[in-house]
């Protein structure tokens, strides 16, 4: 079966992704209400009872809004590093002790036949992480909410078949936007969010013959548009000599209000 995934929701209003293989189904973050997550799961023909656990990237509300409710409703284990657990305490309600599981940043853990690797990223949270998923030759990487991509992160997510990569904002739109300057400075900083331009630079370095698709994620509703993000990322790649054809590599959409179709990682 290999790895399949759907991005149920992506953006500043809430982030939820589901990754599965033949014997394991995991959720990355739970940044919407439990009711809304259940609705989106139903759209992709998944029930909460099928989820084997929730992996947490960091403690910001758009990633944990429904975390406690989902864990209690379906008796789900939550996996997060120790500093993130410290930041979560008091914000997600009571969690059964057996469901409070520490997964250290940089740890590799097997969930039956699905292997998961956690890696540290740069963001203004306690100890934020991204995740890579492995099953046989399949590799899926999820990297959002990072102010910049370090060489170490590039090394970890290189040779992915599919990436879910942040393209949060258009720099000009953000600078001219309605946010106060201190918020703009945070977003633009090394512990903020990856811009369209930065995503294009990253993709030009990471695109390999194995990489077939990149989903642009966590787009700002105020300071970005999907068509603009894809155009900027594509231009950035081509400016650096990285040319491709649509049948060989695709930039794909994510949405804040609806899930992406199930995508099988190994399919071209």
Short structural description:
Keywords: Hydrolase. With 268 residues, this protein is α/β, with parallel strands linked by helices.
Write the layout of secondary structure elements.
Blueprint lengths: L3 E6 L6 E5 L4 E4 L5 H10 L9 E3 L5 H4 L2 H8 L3 E3 L1 H7 L11 E3 L5 E4 L2 E7 L8 E7 L2 E6 L7 H7 L4 E5 L4 H6 L4 H8 L7 H11 L6 E5 L8 H14 L10 E3 L10 E2 L4
Parallel strand pairs: 3-4, 4-5, 5-6, 10-11, 11-12, 12-13
Antiparallel strand pairs: 1-2, 1-14, 2-3, 7-8, 8-9, 9-10
Report on the structure:
The chain is an alpha/beta fold and 268 residues long. It has one domain: Metallo-beta-lactamase, Chain A (4-Layer Sandwich). It is built from nine helices and 14 strands. The chain has a seven-stranded mixed beta sheet. Helix 8 packs across helix 9. The radius of gyration is 17 Å and the shape is globular. The mean pLDDT is 95. Pfam families: Lactamase_B_2. It catalyses: 3',5'-cyclic CMP + H2O = CMP + H(+); 3',5'-cyclic UMP + H2O = UMP + H(+).
Order of helices and strands: EEEHEHHEHEEEEEHEHHHEHEE
User: What count of helical segments does DSSP give?
Assistant: 9
CATH top level class name: Alpha Beta
Give the strand line-up of the largest sheet: 6-5-4-3-2-1-14
- Backbone structural class: alpha/beta
Estimate the strand proportion: 15-25%
Shape: globular
Largest sheet composition? 7 strands, mixed
Count of all domains: 1
The level of helicity is 25-40%
CATH architecture: 4-Layer Sandwich
| Low-pLDDT residue spans | none
Average pLDDT rating: 95
What would you report as the Rg, rounded to the nearest angstrom? Answer: 17 Å
Q: Considering the protein shown, what is the CATH homologous superfamily?
A: Ribonuclease Z/Hydroxyacylglutathione hydrolase-like
Ends apart, CA distance between termini: 14 Å
CATH fold-type name: Metallo-beta-lactamase, Chain A
- The beta-strand count equals 14
Keywords: Hydrolase
Domain Metallo-beta-lactamase: 13-191
Catalytic activity: 3',5'-cyclic CMP + H2O = CMP + H(+); 3',5'-cyclic UMP + H2O = UMP + H(+)
Organism: Paenibacillus pini JCM 16418
């Amino acid at each position: 079966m290999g790895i399949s995934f759907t991005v149920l929701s992506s953006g500043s209003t809430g982030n939820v992704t589901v990754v599965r293989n033949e014997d394991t189904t995991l959720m990355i973050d739970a940044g919407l209400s439990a009711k809304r997550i259940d609705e989106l799961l139903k759209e992709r023909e998944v029930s909460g009872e099928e989820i084997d656990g929730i992996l947490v990237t960091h403690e910001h509300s758009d990633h944990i809004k429904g975390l406690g409710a989902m864990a209690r409703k379906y008796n789900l284990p939550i996996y997060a590093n120790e500093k993130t657990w410290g930041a979560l305490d008091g914000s997600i309600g009571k969690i059964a002790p057996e469901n409070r599981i520490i997964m250290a940043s940089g740890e590799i853990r097997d969930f039956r036949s699905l292997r998961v690797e956690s890696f540290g990223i740069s963001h203004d949270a306690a100890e934020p992480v991204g995740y890579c998923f492995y099953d046989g030759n399949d590799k899926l990487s999820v990297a959002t909410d990072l102010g910049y991509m370090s060489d170490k992160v590039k090394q970890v997510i290189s040779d992915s078949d599919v990436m879910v990569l942040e393209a949060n904002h258009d720099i000009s739109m953000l600078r001219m936007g309605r946010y106060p300057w201190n918020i703009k400075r945070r977003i633009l900083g090394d512990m903020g969010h990856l811009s369209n331009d930065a995503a294009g630079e990253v993709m030009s370095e990471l695109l390999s013959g194995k990489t077939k698709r990149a989903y642009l994620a966590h787009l700002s509703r105020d300071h970005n548009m999907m068509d603009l993000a894809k155009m900027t990322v594509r231009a950035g790649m081509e400016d650096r000599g990285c040319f491709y054809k649509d049948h060989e590599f695709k930039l794909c959409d994510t949405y804040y209000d609806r899930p992406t179709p199930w995508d099988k990682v190994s399919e071209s």
